[in-house]
Amino acid sequence: MTDTPFARPADVMALPRLGGLALSPDGRRLVTSVAALAPDRKTWRTALWEVDPTGRRDARQLTRSAPGESAPVFTPDGTLLFTSARPDPDAGKDAGEPKPALWALAAEGGEARLVLGRKNGIGGITVAADSGDVVVLASTTPGAEDDEADAARRDARKDAGVTAILHESYPVRYWDHDLGPTVPHAFWVGQLPVEGTAPDWRDLTPDAGPPNGAGSDVALSPDGRWLARAEEVADPRASRRGRLVVTDTASGETRVLVDDPAADVGSPAWSPDSARLVCTRESETTQAEPPDYTLLLVDVGSGAVTDLTEGFDRWPSAPQFDAEGGAVYFLADDDGRHAVFRVVEGGAPVRLTRDGAYSDLQVARDGSALYALRSAFDHPAAPVRLDPQATDQQPEPLPNPGTIAALPGTLRELRATAADGVEVQSWLVLPEGASADSPAPLLLWIHGGPLMSWNSWSWRWLPWVMAAQGYAVLLPNPALSQGFGQEFVRRGWGSWGGAPYTDLMAATDAAVELPEVDGSRTAAMGGSFGGYMANWVATQTDRFDAIVTHASLWHLDGFIGATDAAFYWEKEFGDPLTEPARYEQNSPHRYADAITTPVLVIHGDKDYRVPIGEGLRLWYDLQKRGVPSKFLYFPDENHWVLTPGNATVWYETVLAFLAEHVHGRDWSRPELL
């Protein structure tokens, strides 16, 4: 077998991982963040690397510190800004623990210098592309007028032993953290202070309140005059939605640009002349209809709004203007890919890329090129250069520190026909050596979301670890998956146990017909919605030898009442007290008596999206029925498993469970468990 690092999960943790891009104004420097295993092998450490946009020179490391660096962005003069919790070299011995602050690295190199900091850290920045003005996001306590007052209020709580938070509006949690008592505000700093001077902080959002304050979806116009942001507002039945507002950075006056009661509006991006914005519009869901997305072109002066992608049967995201402001680039899932598109007002979107999944799109200011991170199931994220207008592009990666030499198998695309005649697309990873003479056992791996699709490399859900152990891994995109049209999503809307399940079975049937796949040895697994589907599969069929369910939904009524954004899911399923039908039809717990397949349950206690109660009840329901089962519990992990040690034992436990029930081997408990 080819020598790859995927045979041992611990070796996978040591592979470098790229994320984020920043392009200098002159187009000569491309910077990315690279996460690598820290010396203690317990955490990842992020550093900034420079990639040659021409592809002629090797990448070089720019920063190095124990806390790491992230969120790179360039100023108009080529200075590289980044955030880091590295200590201030000029701070005294009583400075306390460093907090995330803004650092600057001059274009000519040298040592980075601290340019902006607050006693309790900063959360992010946005920079005006032409003027170089800066707006900083930082959380502060209610009523605190400045950094000193904020620090005093925090200290008073700490000294009094108070950790309580009083909520007066929904929600109270988000993914893995509690909301409040602080909320983010947007502070005007203007020009970065020269060394030895203090910045003049001015709160542009003094009325920002709980639960999410000024938010994080902000953009400063190129001329520095306007701050655009998606402002959350309350809706009936404890719901929330986003509207688009702009703030005059000189006066602090805020006005609403787009406020659509039937939609969420966000992801604002500015035209080069600071006169227009492009943003996303996500329609409000109902029990009858899933969301739909489009791009809005907004004139800042008049407030006139134009639908830029009307009739486009895909979901656009991450829009950006081209260098001249005459066209907009965006990303969208399309047929198992996450592609780059270009659209002009009045025209139809044109797809620029062939295969792969793109992110972090950067537009060269002279219009000569686009840059992005490209990944696929057979390639981790790597920087690439794109032509701004050519179609069917398949760019080669630029030299970078995250290249992987070989994989333990091959990737192919598979298509099946569902029960209702609809085509279901899948990706299939075949392990090295799989053949008609030596077919591989099949692992059905179901994606989460549910409104997403399998289309890109993921370090958390990495099929090559399984392929290295000889498994064929099927990655289907069933009903509810995005990128196949609105009707494809609608097929599974409010009926999670219907078309999504039959699509998965159709894809599995197509896979086991291949001579390289052994249909007599199979397992199914998934996380989040994929965990829900794994549970549903366990209640509907005994065709699989093992089920692995991570962060999964088990009791839909209980889940919707306890998750961090209950209003979102209730729009699809209805009020469980007055409209129980969809809960009764689709909740796996109602069919627990049908489960005979061995189940591995995995859950993190800090998971607020799918709270731990789902995993606990599933585990109890399996145990009291005598179903062969195990429960892998992570007290300090969230919806994902993010630390290297825990991620390693996650893979080790899953592989041991599959080995026992798919291959019939004796159970081998992972050493550190």
TrEMBL record:
BP GO terms, sorted: proteolysis
The Peptidase S9 prolyl oligopeptidase catalytic domain, residue ranges: 457-663
Coiled-coil segments on the chain, per record: none
Matching Pfam families: PD40, Peptidase_S9
Keyword line: Aminopeptidase, Hydrolase, Protease, Serine protease, Signal
Keyword ATP-binding set for record: no
UniProt-annotated stretches for the region Disordered: 58-80
Family annotation (Gene3D superfamilies): alpha/beta hydrolase, TolB, C-terminal domain
One MF annotation (Gene Ontology) recorded for this entry: serine-type endopeptidase activity
Keyword Transmembrane helix: no
Listed PANTHER family: DIPEPTIDYL-PEPTIDASE 5, SERINE PEPTIDASE S9 FAMILY MEMBER
Family named by the database record: Belongs to the peptidase S9C family.
Name the record gives this protein: Dipeptidyl aminopeptidase/acylaminoacyl peptidase
